[in-house]
Design the sequence.
């Protein structure tokens, strides 16, 4: 089955700096890669996603890149703000697995003012 | 989008007892899932709740321990049976409108077993 590895487990940046979180996946059939943000005491919330027919997607300060050949995808947050502090999860899924999401281990991002 | 109401939000239970968690969605959804998130860990899928039929469980999870109901397209329950301290986790309900679409999550149920 699918296995998703996420790095780093913790990341501390200064406000205004960029943050990058990386994930690798094992199943070449995976074709949907969402990123979720989880704040303390809340459920995860989708912040951006990318499908396998696209190499990059951007939404304001957030971007995701996908390298299908290498089976890795990354989340880029620019101009970080203290409210970006949270735990971020990458995930992968495929149609032939019924769209079940397999999550990475999570990255705790801390943005210091 | 989907708004998910999950109850209870937290509970402290005695070992050997059972707790039923409810998940109510504000619209009819295609898929409903239950996840477990152990302290400081990632999300692990327990099962897919199927409307009108038995749930589909992931490896390592069994119906006797985690019975699931889904009587309609907007409601599901997860029961954690015969609880032990190892069952202390956050349990999350999730829904989506089809494979490879945005998944929405409830706020979770924080369960502590003593």
Sequence:
């Amino acid at each position: 089955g699918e296995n998703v590895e996420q790095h780093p487990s913790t990341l501390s940046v200064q406000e205004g700096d960029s943050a990058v979180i990386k994930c690798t996946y094992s199943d070449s059939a995976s074709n949907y890669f969402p990123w979720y943000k989880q704040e303390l005491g809340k459920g995860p919330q989708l912040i951006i996603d990318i499908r396998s027919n696209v190499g990059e997607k951007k939404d304001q300060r957030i971007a995701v890149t996908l390298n299908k050949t290498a089976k890795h995808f990354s989340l880029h947050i620019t101009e970080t703000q203290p409210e970006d502090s949270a735990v971020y999860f990458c995930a992968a899924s495929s149609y032939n697995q019924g769209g079940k999401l397999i999550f990475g281990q999570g990255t705790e991002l801390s943005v210091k003012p | 989008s989907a708004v998910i109401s999950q109850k209870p939000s937290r509970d402290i239970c005695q070992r050997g007892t059972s707790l039923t968690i409810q998940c109510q969605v504000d619209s009819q959804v295609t898929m409903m899932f239950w996840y477990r998130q152990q302290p400081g860990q990632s999300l692990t899928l327990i099962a897919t709740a199927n409307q009108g039929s038995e749930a589909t469980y992931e490896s390592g999870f069994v119906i006797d321990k985690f019975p699931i109901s889904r009587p309609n397209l907007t409601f599901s329950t997860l029961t954690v049976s015969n609880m032990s301290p190892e069952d202390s986790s956050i349990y999350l309900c999730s829904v989506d409108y089809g494979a490879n679409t945005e998944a929405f999550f409830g706020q979770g149920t924080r369960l502590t077993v003593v």
User: Anything to note?
Assistant: Chain A has a mean pLDDT of 95. The CA atoms of residues 4 and 25 of chain A lie 5 Å apart. The interface with chain B takes residues 31-32, 34, 36, 41-46, 49, 51, 89, 93-95, 98-106 of chain A (CB under 8 Å). The longest strand of chain A covers residues 19-25.
